[in-house]
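Quick one, tokens below. Sequence please?
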């Protein structure tokens, strides 16, 4: 995050956003035609979200086409030439409005209803019990993941023109997904491009009383050569906060990227939360090298997996 914005600072498997009713929460979003590659146009959802909403498997996805299916349906979505969705070979909904963003297709929200109505009822199959988390994983508890900035607060602007708020939101969503798969109940302070005060973020965590609060940011400096991730705790941080920071730092360093270590700073989201808390700076948006990496979906996924692993490592030891 930029130096002057350092204090700027959804739930369960479905990642439901819990902050819609919080005071000071003002919905935000990007208009169609936005140059920001990490956020969908307003009023659209990704094919990944569509698959989850409809109970379909996302078989393949690219910036030009996607295939979703279950045992009774095949849904194909094409972004070019005019943008069209097909359910079992029949065109569905109006053409157009299907656009690529960050290597994935996004569809207009009304198209989801058209696709849903065209689906066949899946054939009955023998029930196979879903894999259950191990008893140890079930005890890992709840964590709040805070995507810094949002809405009218863009955070730092990268040397490539991409906003910090978009990079950290995407990464936070990925962290939450990885945590869910590890048996951790993940709640995000924001699941959309939404304005949220520092006090609201801390208040959410204090109301939920999770085992850990993790705020996600990206750094910036006047020196374009500055690089590396940093993990912060409050100056008077508890031993548990420090242990969590060490676990996350260890996993991120294991990716082979530069670590700037664990540092102490009284950022408000760290000192106003009553649970153990850490803040992670993913890298420097002012560095052409790191800014180029941070706009890549695969790189953000690597960071998210490492952070989630570090969180799970910590929770298992407590």
């Amino acid at each position: 995050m930029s130096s002057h914005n350092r204090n700027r600072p959804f739930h369960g498997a479905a990642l439901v956003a819990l902050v819609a009713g919080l005071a000071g929460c003002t919905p935000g979003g990007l208009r169609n035609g936005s140059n920001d590659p990490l956020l969908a146009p307003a009023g659209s959802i990704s094919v990944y979200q569509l698959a989850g909403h409809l109970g379909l498997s996302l078989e393949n996805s690219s910036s030009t086409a996607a295939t979703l299916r279950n045992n009774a349906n095949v849904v194909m979505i094409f972004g070019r030439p005019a943008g069209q969705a097909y359910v079992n070979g029949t065109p569905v909904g109006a053409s157009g409005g299907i656009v690529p963003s960050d290597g994935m297709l996004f569809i207009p929200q009304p198209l989801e209803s058209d696709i849903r109505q065209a689906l066949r009822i899946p054939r009955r199959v023998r029930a196979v019990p879903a894999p259950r988390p191990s008893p140890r994983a079930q005890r890992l508890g709840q964590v709040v993941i805070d995507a810094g900035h949002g809405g009218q607060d863009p955070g730092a602007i990268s040397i490539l023109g991409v906003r910090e708020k978009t990079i950290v939101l995407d990464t936070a969503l990925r962290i939450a997904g990885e945590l869910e798969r590890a048996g951790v109940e993940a709640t995000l302070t924001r699941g959309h491009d939404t304005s949220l005060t520092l006090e609201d973020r801390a208040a959410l965590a204090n109301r939920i009383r999770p085992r850990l609060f993790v705020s996600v940011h990206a750094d910036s400096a006047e020196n374009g050569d500055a690089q590396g991730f940093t993990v912060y705790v409050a100056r008077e941080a508890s031993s548990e906060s420090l242990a969590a920071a060490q676990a996350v730092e260890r996993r991120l360093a294991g990716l082979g990227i530069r670590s700037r270590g664990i540092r102490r700073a009284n950022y408000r989201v760290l000192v106003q939360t009553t649970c153990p808390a850490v803040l992670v700076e993913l890298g420097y948006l002012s560095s052409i090298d790191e800014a180029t990496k941070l706009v890549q979906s695969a790189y953000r996924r690597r960071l998210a997996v490492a952070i989630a692993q570090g969180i799970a490592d910590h929770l298992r030891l407590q």
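Confidence is low (pLDDT under 50) at residues 2-37, 125-137. The chain has two domains: 9-30+134-317, 44-118.
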